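PROTEIN DESIGN WORKSHEET
SECTION A - STRUCTURE
LENGTH: 258
TOKENS:
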């Protein structure tokens, strides 16, 4: 074969056919591009998060505490000192909860970051339902029988709480818990009408109103129903000729007045 024939028979490079990209190939290419772009974005965000997490640029310099009444605000600020100078992204709900966990008055906390250097902490305290005299001070207790705070008499008086009448009630944990459980069942509008509460056993809780009338409550069982019945009885107009001095709601379905 002559050189001319070889040249004529050989296909030219410019004549190679290029087939169009199939739909599957295009989809694979787009998917590959998407994965590469996504991985790059995730990496960038991870690096940025790491920088912010450890950066002193977002160091906490201001801690604002609100909602404290039983817990002294100065004490709350003192307990939260460890968060100062820490980067804001490192301090969350759990961190603040752990720092305040030892304070019995604290129920829950709400934490909010205030960039670039602020942290706001709102404290939600347990509701006190009773108080016990301790010399010139008053110890405030929750419905669970937990001592929440010790306050001077004038500050404790602002809560309008019934006092536990007998020191013996405090010495018997079961009896004392029964009393605070009963007081915790009462609506605040009724609890503020109570002067004191006492009991010899868990089945003999007795409440004394500020006007001297008494309520025989019995044990803590059926508390909401008893509270509902007592609230209704207290709304009945008083008969001056035969005034009621005692409300017996120990059996709420058959209340008795005397």
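SECTION B - SEQUENCE
RESIDUE ASSIGNMENT:
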């Amino acid at each position: 074969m002559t050189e001319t024939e070889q040249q004529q028979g050989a296909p030219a490079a410019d004549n190679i056919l290029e087939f169009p990209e199939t739909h599957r190939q295009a989809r694979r290419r787009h998917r590959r591009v998407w994965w590469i772009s996504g991985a790059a974005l995730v990496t960038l965000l991870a690096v940025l998060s790491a920088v912010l997490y450890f950066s002193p640029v977002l160091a906490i310099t201001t801690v604002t505490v609100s909602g404290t009444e039983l817990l002294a605000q100065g004490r709350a600020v003192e307990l939260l000192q460890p968060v100062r100078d820490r980067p804001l992204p490192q301090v969350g709900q759990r961190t603040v909860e752990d720092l305040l966990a030892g304070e019995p008055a604290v129920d829950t906390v709400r934490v909010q970051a205030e960039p670039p250097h602020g942290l706001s902490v709102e404290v939600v305290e347990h509701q006190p339902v009773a108080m016990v005299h301790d010399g010139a001070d008053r110890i405030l207790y929750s419905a669970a029988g937990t001592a929440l705070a010790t306050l001077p008499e004038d500050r404790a008086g602002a809560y309008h709480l019934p006092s536990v009448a007998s020191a013996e009630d405090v010495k018997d944990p079961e009896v004392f818990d029964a009393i605070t459980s009963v007081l915790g069942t009462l609506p605040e509008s009724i609890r503020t009408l109570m002067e004191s509460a006492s009991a010899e056993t868990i089945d003999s809780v007795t409440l004394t109103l500020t006007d001297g009338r008494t309520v025989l409550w019995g044990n803590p069982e059926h508390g909401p129903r008893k509270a509902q019945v007592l609230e209704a009885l207290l709304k009945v107009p008083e008969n001056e000729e035969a005034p009621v001095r005692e409300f017996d709601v120990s059996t709420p379905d058959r209340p008795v007045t005397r």
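SECTION C - NOTES
The domain at 160-257 is CATH 3.40.50.11690 (Rossmann fold).
The first strand starts at residue 62 and ends at 66.
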